[in-house]
Amino acid sequence: xxxxVTDACIRCKYMDCVEVCPVDCFYEGENMLVIHPDxxxxxxxxEPECPAEAIKPDTEGGLEQWLExxxxxxxxxxxxxxxREAPAxxxxxxxxxxxxxxxxxxxxxxxx
Length: 112
What we know:
22% of the residues lie in helices and 11% in strands. It has 4 helices and 4 strands. Strands 1-4 form a two-stranded antiparallel ribbon. The longest helix is centred in the middle third of the chain and has 11 residues, at 64-74.
């Protein structure tokens, strides 16, 4: 089992999860984070820290595409271990439908 970041993170990117991860398995894209599935130790401390409820265990049904996306971009994007400020419109973006189709960016974030 591993945890995955879903589309609920897109343009919210709160980064509370980054601060509690004991193995630093988060990677930063321009407007979302992902978890490296081979580095995640399945501790689960990140899941309740996410205000957008974007982190899910991969044992939940229907998350296959998110496991693939997390694995793909965790090797492309830089590692992030330090919490920074969320985007100014993060609260407004919570629960917005179609976030992946309308807002996902393949561009990397800043990282540490």
